[in-house]
Amino acid sequence: MPASNPIASIFDFPDLNPIAQISGTGRTEAESLTIGSGFQVRSNPHPSAGQYLEAIAPASQAGGIFSGAAGYYDLTLGYFDESDGVSFMEILVNGSVVSSFAWDSATGSQIVTAAAKAEHVVTGVALAPGDVIELRGMADGGEPLRTDYLDVSAGSAPGPASSFAVEAEDLTLVSGFEAVRNGAASASYVLQQSGGGTARASFTMEQTGHFDLTIRYFDESDGVSELWVKVNGVEVDRFLWDDVTGSTLASKASLAQHVIAGLDLRAGDVIELEGRGDGGEPLRLDRLDFEARDDAPAGPLPDLWYEDGNDVVVALNDGSGAFTEVVTGITTDVTYSAGGAIRAGASILSADLDGDGLNDFLKVFTTGPELPAIPAGASQVPYRFTVTTEVYLNDGAMGFDLAASSDEVFDILIGDVELDAGEPPADLFRAHAAGDIDADGDIDYLAGSYLGGALFVLENDGANAFSLQAATPIAVLGYTPNEALLADMNGDELLDAVVTTGADWNGLAITVNDGTGQMVTTAGRGGGEGGAGNPQVADLDGDGDLDVIYSLAGEDSALYAVLNDGTGHEDGAGVRIGTIDGGVGTKLAADFDGDGDVEMVTASLSDEDYGVPAGLRTFELVRDAAGDRFEEVSYDPDIVGRVLAPEDYDGDGDLDMLIFSSGLRLLVNDGAGNFSLGDEIVPPFVSTEVSWVPRVGTGDFDTADTFLF
């Protein structure tokens, strides 16, 4: 199991919202940091500017906002490591611990003097503007956590990892272990359990990389002990010491080893070994061997899903660029016009609804009477309908069973204009995106109604039953198609809504979630006589927040970018790549060349009448005195079509794409942002979605490669 989660703090402080600035290079005095709690500023002739932070509580917190350019940096913390206590401190970036250490010097002075000055260095820390750098610490004895300064200097990305070994007796002893001499051990000592209960020891990584961890231990034959291993508090392995063929003593005959393969580890990760001895077999640990691997642990490659006529279909990725279709048995309930054309049916969304790591499905549909006519002399008419939400859970072998169903009754008022233009079911109620909108740990979903003039949040009760949490009137919805996605646009860790509107409004609305599911509009753009669609979010300008790009058709056809000021409001006048009366199609924004910056890619922008031939173009955002703009940095005339779904489909560490170009095909990235056009990956399908491009979603649907391959 890879261990790549953020490293959690041992302290239970609330989020710090500092105002103090930490420069890109140079010294920031500790006393200038924003104090969260537990620190006070004290004066003394020995610190660098005559002052330091001193703890006045058992736990203390302070920090600031990084204001330098994005890159890798070395952090040096200056402090006073006195000899009359063992304090402890963590250095965090955006709430994740990048380093923790004990102030354990026994050679300095017991008071603040030059003899007690010390520094702790953390190398290769990735920082970006707006990152919060935080200090959290715990004073001890007569050592009140006196903190002097934080120096920031240019650093470099962590180098390749190398293999290394750690003798068990050199681990940090937490409880229940002691070092005992033993001639059969690799350095003549073992770490031995010293009593009953659970014994604990830990090790903090100093390298970043991918490792096989081999635990060497003595598996004696007179007991069945147990050991489990955690990384940053998450258990990654557990095994029994159950050998019956070796010796009853800790000797060469009972020496054993256990391998945990493919751990993805970072500098600062804490590896914990915990266990219980049994019978005549107390836990005896010899050594930990970390073998660096060149290859990353193989994670699940993204699968595809889409609607094909009346069926929801999953295409499983075999890792070689080939996909195998599986019909899920979930129907889309489409209807057909007299001419045989498909009309929209149910809304289908995919997300992990039961927390098992696999994608499940939501099916959302409406029932109600025929739309009424507007009464004479009235401008609107009431209408009641029912929304049914069905949950289909994945059994891990591509079986999808109906696990829950819930109904919610809606009462809306339909205006005369909307009644003339709108057509159920797409314009009555359409589910757009699934996510944890209310931050309670389960999956909710966002929907919209053109006929009702509102956005809706349907809340999950934790058991996959859905009811209306909030309705937000939004007058700019157009008739089919409206599109929407969920993203955190103001950095408050709540999902907001980005909406592109249908044919009679043709624009963009950015809304923020007020915490109750109400979506408050903060920014918007309109214009054009064609529809707006294909919204995407990405940090285009590298300032740490999400910006928006979308497409606009018609006489004002263009690709638009709306830059975010961090609060969901617009920063600047926006950026436009336009044609006179050509095509714009779809586009994607992501870091395709691995340089840390986001590029925008499109293969449909064209205007032959004005010398803009179609082809795959890559743009980079430039912001300088000349204004905000996209500059074209590459062009391939041989790749034309509508791009979608950036993912690492072949597991080589870079982002590939899908493209509709004579069928659905794969665009394979060479790692430098250059793409080659692959063969068709699935047979042609009949999309039931009304949008700028037939919708193809990605996810992880199967647990075992042996299912089909």
UniProtKB/TrEMBL annotation:
Keyword Signal: yes
Pfam families linked to this entry: FG-GAP_3
Domain of life: Bacteria
InterPro entries for the chain: FG-GAP, Integrin_alpha_N
Keywords: Signal
UniProt-listed Gene3D superfamilies: Galactose-binding domain-like
Protein name: VCBS repeat-containing protein
Organism from which the protein derives: Alloyangia sp. H15
